[in-house]
Amino acid sequence: MSESLGAVAKAFPQARLVAFADLSSRMILSSAGSLATTQEHLDRLCDQARASFDDPLFALSVEAFGEPQGAVVMGADAVRVFLRSDTEPADAMCCICDHGIDLAAFVAKIRDTLESITHAG
Fold it and tell me: Which of 101, 93, 73, 119 is nearest to 19 (CA)?
C-alpha cells in the first residue's frame, strides 16, 4: 500500500500528501508525500473527508446525481481531494495538492490506486 501511494506522490509532485483512509474507523492507514504531518493532522484530514461525504447538504445532490464518490475542497493554500471507493465506501483517498496540479489526471490515477488497494485487501 505505501509503495502504491509513494508512486502517486512521485508521479505528481504537486500532491503534497497522498493518504489511504478507512472512513469507518476514522483512520489514515498509510500516507506518502512531501508534507510533514502529525497524527493529529492526519486525523483532521480523515474527519474532513468524512464530513465531505456525510454533509446533510448533500441530500439534494444525492437525489439528483446519486451518492457522491468524490469531493474537491479549494483552499487558499491547497486543494484537498477526497475520493471514495465505488465498491467499498469506507475506503478512501485523502490528498492535499498544490493548485497547479492536473486534477483530471490526478483523480484518474488515485481512482486506479484506490481500487487496486481496495481489491488487494
Answer: 93
